[in-house]
Fold Cell division protein FtsB.
Amino acid sequence: MRKLALILLAVLCWLQYSLWFGKNGVHDYLRVKNEVAALETLNMTFKVRNERLFAEIDDLNEGREAIEERARTELGMIRPGESFYRIVNENSFPKHK
């Protein structure tokens, strides 16, 4: 009877060790769970970025207004006959002493 109890105790210890420290144990589960959470966050960031890019593509495909706006803001283009005036704030220049 004592021998059986020792064998059962040894099996129980081995099962507990496998559960906590073995392959696919609790530690691996927690590590994979954290990786999945991090990847889901990264995936959500990419989804938002993709939605913004698709909206910009749709805007550019729909009409000339978006193309004209980008040409004016990013490339500094103006139409023939237009004058461009830039209003500069006085605080943007260094003061001379």
The helical segments are 2-21, 26-62, 64-75. The two ends are 99 Å apart (CA to CA).
